[in-house]
Amino acid sequence: MLGTILYGARDVRCEEVPEPKILKPTDAIIRLSASCICGSDLWPFRGENDTPEPKAMGHEYCGIVEAVGKAVTTVRPGQFVVGSFCLSDNTCPHCRFGFQSSCEQREFMTGAQAPLARVPLADGTLVATSELPPEDLIPSLLATSDVLGTGWYAADAARVRPGSTVVVVGDGAVGLMGVLAAKQMEAGRIIIMSRHKTRQDLALEYGATDIVAERGEAGIARIRELTANVGADSVLECVGTKESMAQALAVARPGSTIGYVGVPHGVEFDGQQLFFSQKGLMGGPAPVRRFLPHLMDLVLDRKINPGKVFDLELPLLDVAEGYRAMDERRAIKVLLRV
Amino acid sequence: MLGTILYGARDVRCEEVPEPKILKPTDAIIRLSASCICGSDLWPFRGENDTPEPKAMGHEYCGIVEAVGKAVTTVRPGQFVVGSFCLSDNTCPHCRFGFQSSCEQREFMTGAQAPLARVPLADGTLVATSELPPEDLIPSLLATSDVLGTGWYAADAARVRPGSTVVVVGDGAVGLMGVLAAKQMEAGRIIIMSRHKTRQDLALEYGATDIVAERGEAGIARIRELTANVGADSVLECVGTKESMAQALAVARPGSTIGYVGVPHGVEFDGQQLFFSQKGLMGGPAPVRRFLPHLMDLVLDRKINPGKVFDLELPLLDVAEGYRAMDERRAIKVLLRV
C-alpha cells in the first residue's frame, strides 16, 4: 500500500510501504475513512525536531475496523471507530484520573497517513459508533481524533466556564477548535489573535466574539483594552513558541489559567515571575480519549462542525504538497483521501 | 515606640521608631494583640534577598483598631480585626475574582513587628470580629493573617478535593498549615515530607497520615511506594527552592496541580518537560483576604488550632533572637509579645 514517510527536513514522501499487521493481541487494524496532516507534523518537517531515522507519519484517524487481535473485546471488524493520537489502555490510574495521554502504557500513534493503520491498545483507545456514520460527517469525526480533542483540552485545562472571557493565542487548526470548544463551554467572550482573513472568518463562525490582528506589544495592548485592563479569565495557548507563550502570559489575568497545547519549543518559565503574576499553567498532550465519546456525539448530532477546519483536500499521493501548503499557511489543515 | 528594623543580612534590631500615623484617608492604625516572624522574613535576613535600605519588618497582624482615616467605613476604633499581609481594596476586578493578592492597588504590609501598625486600604483589608475574642485565641487569629491563609491557598491552588492524596513539601509553618488545610478540605491522605520530630508530631496532630523523612531520590521513591507508583493528586510546595520544587514536580501525578506558595528562589521550569509530564502549576502570594472570614470563623468556633504552630514566644525586644531561632530551625514560628 501507499504510506507517508518523513526522511528529514522538507523531505516527506508518499511511497510503497508494507501493510500493517496485528503484532500484539491488543492491536487492531483499521481501514481509514480519511487521514490528515497535523500542525505538530510540521515541527519535524521544518527540521525543528530531529528525524534520526525515517518515520511513518500520521496520528489522526478514523475508519472501519479491519481486524483485531485476540485480546480485543470492545471493537470488532466492520465497526466505525475513532481513536486518540495518544494510545492508552484506559484502565491504569492515570487514565482513570482522566489523563489518558499519560497512560502507563502510553504510545503515540504513527503511520496513519495511509489507507490502513495499526492501532495498539485498541480496547482502551478506540471508540465505536453504534452505526456507520454518514459520509459527510467523516471530516468532523476525523477532527475529534486530535485537533478538536486538543483544542477542547486547551479550553478544559484553562478552566473555561460559562461567561468566561477567553483569549485564544494561535489561529491554526487547534486554535480554531479552541474557539469552538470555548463556545460549547458557554464562554461569554472569545477573543482570537489572528491576522489571516480565512482563519478570522472561520473563528467568527465557530463563535469568536473579537479578533485581534495585532501581535506583540500592540496585541497585548489591544486585549487589555478589550478587557477593561483586566486580562482574560482563561487563555488557550495553541502554538508553542516562546513568543506565543509570552503573549499568553501577558494577556492572562492574575488567577487565570493558561491551557497550553502547542508543544513548547524554547519555552522557559521563570518561577518568581510566574509566582508574582499568579498565572496558572496546565498543558500537555491532550487526553483526547476522555472527551472522545462526548465530542463524537456532538458531531453525530450535528451540533458542531469541526470538519470545516479542513480547507484543502488532497489525495494521499500529494501528501508532500499538503505539508507544504500547511507550512506556508496556504491551508489551515489538509485532509488526505486515502 | 519599639519597632523592628532590618539593616541587612543577619542584622535585625528592635529599636525606637516613630509611632505610625494615618497618612491616607483609607488607612487604619491598629494596636497589635501579638505579632510574629514569617518564614519569608528569613530570605532578607539570610541575605538571599537584598536589603538596599533599612526596612520596617512584620506583615502578620491582628489587634484592636486605634484610629481610622476619614474614608474608612467598615471598621471603627475599638474593634478587633485581622488583615492579610497583602493589602487590597477588595473591590477591583482582581479582588472580585478572588485574587486580592493581585489587587490593582496592592501593597505589602510592613512594620507589624511593633505594638502599633498602619494598615493601608483598611476597608478592603481588615475583617472585624463581632466581639473581642478571648485571649487564648489570639495566636490562632494571628495565624490566619498569613501563615494559615498561605497554607490554605496552597491547598486551594493545588485543588485538594475530598479523598485526594496530597503531598506537602516543606515542614515549616506554612507546610504545617497546608496539612491543616488539606485535612479541612477532607483529603483522604496527607503525606508530609519532614525530618524533624517536633514538626512531624505537629503534622500528625494537624491531620497528616504519613511522614516521609527521606529527601531527594529516596524521598521520591518513598512517595511513589506510598502511592502505588501513581504520585499525588495535589502537591503543596511550601518552600521555594530549586530542590523543593523539583521534589514537588517529581511526586505530582500527571494531571495534578502543584500549589506553590514559597517565594521561588532560583526556580525555572522547562516548558517541554512540564508539558510532557502534565503537571499543573498555580501559585503566588496568597489571596488571604478571600479565605479570611472563613478561617476566622473556624478559629472562633474552635474547630482548628493553627496557633499551635507558634512554638516559641518572645518579647519584641528579643526579636533578633526570634529570627535566629527560626533561621536555625530551633523554632517553627516565633510569636512576638508587643
Concise summary:
By secondary structure, the first copy, chain A, is of the alpha/beta class. Chain A has twelve helices and 19 strands. Chain A has two domains: 2-146 and 287-337, Medium-chain alcohol dehydrogenases, catalytic domain (Quinone Oxidoreductase, Chain A, domain 1, Alpha-Beta Complex), CATH 3.90.180; 151-283, Rossmann fold (3-Layer(aba) Sandwich).
Q: Would you give an account of this structure?
A:
The structure is a homodimer of 338-residue chains. By secondary structure, chain A is α/β, with parallel strands linked by helices. Chain A folds into two domains: 2-146 and 287-337, Alpha-Beta Complex (Quinone Oxidoreductase, Chain A, domain 1); 151-283, 3-Layer(aba) Sandwich (Rossmann fold). The first copy, chain A, is built from twelve helices and 19 strands. The first copy, chain A, has helices at residues 42-45, 93-96, 122-125, 138-144, 147-157, 173-184, 197-206, 216-226, 242-251, 271-277, 288-300, 319-327, and strands at 2-8, 11-16, 28-36, 55-56, 61-68, 80-83, 86-87, 107-108, 116-119, 126-128, 165-169, 189-193, 210-212, 232-237, 252-260, 268-270, 280-283, 312-315, 334-337. In chain A, strands 3, 5, 6, 9, 10, 18 and 19 form a seven-stranded mixed beta sheet that branches. In chain A, helix 5 crosses helix 11, helix 6 (173-184) packs parallel to helix 7 and helix 8 (216-226) packs parallel to helix 9 (242-251). Chain A starts with a strand and ends with a strand. The model of chain A has no long low-confidence stretch (mean pLDDT 97). At the A-B interface, strand 15, strand 16, helix 10 and strand 17 of A face strand 15, strand 16, helix 10 and strand 17 of B. Strand 16 of chain A pairs antiparallel with strand 16 of chain B, so a sheet runs across the interface.
